[in-house]
Design brief:
This protein is α/β, with parallel strands linked by helices. The strands form three sheets. The protein has a six-stranded parallel sheet with strand order 9-8-7-10-11-12, with helices on both faces. A four-stranded parallel sheet has the order 3-4-5-6. It has a two-stranded antiparallel ribbon with strand order 1-2. The protein is globular, with a radius of gyration of 23 Å. 40% of the residues are buried.
Length: 458
């Protein structure tokens, strides 16, 4: 959820600002085109939550879930991508693992529905390719970047900025699937060649990006590498919405780790700590709530769970939960943990602090940035260090209270607006008032239907 949450926050803040000369585009099979009116209305309604969010697995009735999916597909005019098909099918079929016959049938039905709505949607004007226009500044999303790196054949003329969250697949390929590592090498090569600017989310990711760019193309032109630190945005996005209790944890004493379950995230260390401490601390040992979908290279973790069935008493796996449920976890946990071996930022650690929750983090450089140097740091590979830290967090109320006080006094959240404004500033996007009188570029129109200034950011 990390990258989609960040990009949704960016879109939301840009759409709210009527002083910007901005239009929106999408990438289809390596070509770019402006959004249709239907697509733009859907995008705005989605990020502003004027249509239902399909999140988590379906706890409501089947017909209620069908109504929700129908509303989303209808609003989009059938233009949503394949990931929405998978998310919505998992929601309809109550399958967080996105497997099984019911899941496949639901996905097939959704795609049939999209075809029907697509036939009635407004026409798509494919004559104008924003990426071929040298007068515009384009921000490229993560999904758009993958599509262009895989399929784009024509040269790119636009001034492109992209966010680079980390270079872990390049620097530490042992922690990722081989196919993902190969795709990242391709994407990184494309970014080096065509992006004018790469905006990194931490000083750490900027350092590794510079190293990768310099090593790969020492004599070629290089993109500018800038830093615009992330916020977490979950708490801000929850304003006006109640948290939703996770029924099985109400009244429980628990610690939370929100992250995809994969080798780099180092869940195995936490399982070893809990297995050792459960008989020593007894009832004082909190449950360990591991919140996230299963990812790659988790054989060791699954084998450890199979070898130690007693962990089921104190280890709880949650997958496919909603934002209100995640907010409830942060509000009600005793403390958070984030033992990851490597990060570009550490969204889950920052989310803990946004909710005032102390979190124990590893020595991955970016995690200290995400938590602003305020939280206890334990080397990722130091099992004894994690044992000692968990014992203290489980038993020392005064220590946790002191950490909460540090967060309240010294932690400074980064808002959606601050993040979006920082990115626009790095791109050099002026407000409309700053460029009045300059003729409109390439017949573009502002996202709200008014005339845009020249050299729009897209």
């Amino acid at each position: 959820m990390g990258i989609p949450r960040v990009e949704s926050a960016l879109i939301r803040q840009v759409l709210r600002r009527k002083d910007l000369n901005v239009v929106f585009y999408r990438v289809d099979r390596g070509k770019s085109r402006l959004l249709t009116g239907t697509e733009l209305r859907y995008l705005e309604a989605l990020v502003e939550r004027r249509i239902p969010y399909i999140e988590g697995v379906g706890s409501s009735s089947y017909w209620s879930r069908i109504k929700t999916v129908y509303q989303v597909v209808r609003a989009s005019g059938g233009s949503t991508g394949r990931e929405l098909d998978r998310v919505a099918a998992g929601y309809l079929a109550n399958r967080a693992d996105r497997k099984g016959l019911h899941f496949e049938l639901a996905k097939f039905g959704i795609r049939i529905g999209k075809l029907g709505f697509g036939m009635r949607a407004d026409r798509r004007d494919r004559r104008y390719d924003p990426l071929a226009d040298p007068t515009v500044k384009c921000f490229l999303s993560n999904v758009g970047l993958h599509a262009l790196a895989a399929h784009r054949q024509a040269q790119v003329q636009a001034n492109i900025t992209a966010i680079l969250h980390d270079t872990i697949p390049l620097d530490m390929p042992r922690f990722v699937d081989k196919g993902h590592a190969a795709s990242f090498v391709r994407d990184f090569q494309w970014m080096r060649e065509w992006c004018r600017q790469l905006v990194c989310v931490s000083e750490y990711s900027a350092r590794t990006t510079r190293k990768g760019v310099e090593a790969a193309s020492p004599d070629a032109p290089r993109p500018t590498i800038s830093v615009n630190r992330l916020g977490s945005f979950l708490r801000e996005g929850m304003e006006g919405r109640p948290a939703e209790p996770v029924a099985q944890l109400v009244g429980s004493n628990f610690a939370v780790y929100c992250s995809t379950i994969e080798i780099r995230k180092n869940h195995i260390t936490l399982l070893r700590v809990w297995q050792r401490l459960m008989p020593l601390l007894g009832e004082r040992m909190p449950k360990l709530v591991l919140c996230g979908r299963w990812g790659w290279m988790v054989e060791e973790t699954k084998q450890y769970l199979a070898d130690h069935p007693e962990l089921a008493e104190k280890v709880c796996f949650l997958s496919g939960i909603s934002d209100p449920q995640l907010a409830w976890l942060y509000q009600n946990a005793r403390f958070g943990v984030f033992p990851s071996v490597a990060e570009g930022w550490g969204l889950g650690a920052a989310e803990c602090l946004d909710f005032g929750l102390p979190v124990l983090v590893s020595d991955a450089d970016a995690l200290s940035e995400a938590t602003q140097g305020l939280m206890p740091v334990i080397p990722a590979a130091d099992l004894e260090g994690w044992v000692a830290a968990i014992v203290r967090a489980a038993t020392d109320d005064a220590w946790l209270a002191a950490l909460r006080a540090v967060i309240a006094e010294r932690y400074r959240p980064i808002s959606e607006l601050e993040f979006a404004s920082g990115l626009l500033s790095l791109m050099g996007v002026p407000p409309v008032s700053a460029v009045e009188g300059i003729p409109l570029a390439s017949g573009l129109r502002r996202n709200d239907g008014e005339a845009a200034a020249a050299s729009p950011a897209i």
